[in-house]
Amino acid sequence: MIALLPGFLLKLPRCTLLTSRRALTQGSCEQKYLATFDFDLSIIEEDSYMAVTRLLPPDQRTKKLYGQIQESGWIAFMQQVLETLHQQHGIGAAKIAQQVREVPAVPGILGLLRRLAAQRAHIDMHIVSDANSFFIEHWLEAHQLTNIFAGVHTNPASVDCNELLQIMPYEQQTHCDLCPPNLCKGGVMANLMAAVHVPYKRIIYVGDSCNDLCAIVALRPGDIACIRCGEELHAKLPAHEHQLRCELLHWRDGDDLEQQLFDDCLRNL
Ligand SMILES: [Mg+2]
Ligand SMILES: [Zn+2]
After folding, report:
1. Shortest-distance ligand to the CA of residue 212
2. Any idea which ligand is nearest the CA of 179?
């Protein structure tokens, strides 16, 4: 326990604990569910970085620009986009927030999130995302969802005195080959599992892309990985099924996901 403490404390400032009061007041004996969501293409219907990059004029949205995601990583790419918007086009944090707030939700997902939130006595809800705290918090606020998540685990962001948005890595990890250096989602899941006195009854993880793979590898037998049909991970999953202990659920939109979850693992709520 003592050995785990420094790492746990290091991660605390990077997790926005929106409703930590709830965690402190919940009953200590009940086995709860954990519902964990990726953000881009799992809650919102577009990659948030693509929506923000569209603020650049078309002639600056080049293959070379997008190639930097592979070359230098997502955070360095995003920071260059943000600096170009700021320095060359006078676009700062307020306009970026507005752009993100207008990204549509995955069809039907708002209904599912609100139905899960109505069961907050029995379900802890978290977001684990490689986007950033600024995008996520603004989008949640625009959809009156700020208070339903117990935690948002993502790259922290801040706005400087000149209205320039700056994104920092959640962590600098070298232990996991499945994840980028700035965020190991499986590590976040392990921390969430270790943070409760009574193990979760079942864990639900909702994701769409290969950066969700590590999180679902961390799931236990009986837990459920909800993989979105038609997106990146769905196509690549057969190659990784031997690594998984959890059950798989395939979903198209929020209505479909809600029906499958409440017909099966959540039917007794
Ligand atoms: Mg995603
Ligand atoms: Zn990982």
Report:
1. 1
2. 2
What's the mean pLDDT when you consider all of the chain? 91
* Ligand at shortest distance from the CA of 243: 2
Say which ligand is closest to the CA of 38.
1
Query: How far is Cα 59 from Cα 2, in angstroms, rounded to an integer?
Result: 54
Residues of the chain predicted below pLDDT 50: 1-13, 18-26
Residue 187 CA to ligand 2 center (angstroms) comes to 6
Model pLDDT for residues 45-90, shown as the tens digit of each residue:
999 999 999 999 999 999 999 999 999 999 999 999 999 999 999 9
pTM of the model: 0.89
pLDDT at 269: 81
Using alpha carbons, select from 165, 166, 138, 163 the residue that is nearest to residue 152.
138
For residue 185, give the ligand nearest its CA: 2
Strands (E), 120-213: 123-132, 151-155, 157-159, 165-167, 202-207
Report how far ligand 1's centroid is from the alpha carbon of 142 (Å): 19
From ligand 2's centre to the CA of 64, what distance in Å?
Answer: 28
The domain spans of the chain are 5-46+106-160+168-263, 49-101
The neighbour count for residue 205, using CB atoms within 10 Å, is 26
Q: What residues does 245 pair with on adjacent strands?
A: none
- Which residues, chain by chain, have CB under 5 Å from ion ligand 2? 176, 178-179, 184, 186, 214
Among 170, 232, 182, 266, residue whose Cα is nearest residue 41: 232
| CATH fold of 5-46+106-160+168-263 | Rossmann fold (3.40.50)
